[in-house]
Write the structure tokens for this entry.
Amino acid sequence: MEKQRMTWDEIAEKYPDRWVGLTDIDWEDSANIRSAVVKYADKTADELLEMQILGTEGIQSAYTTPDNLY
């Protein structure tokens, strides 16, 4: 997967309507991601949540297109 830092807009464009597992997150504020490294883009929401809960690799899960989630 990606090893380079990408802005949130770049991540959302490259991985539309997909759950991603992020590391090295630079937060714009307490709710918005400015940039991050995409570690996983091929896992389900449940898999990423489990990794997040267990602290696996410092993964934070996010959905790239929140407006299309429901």
Notes: The beta strands are 5-7, 19-27, 33-40, 60-63.
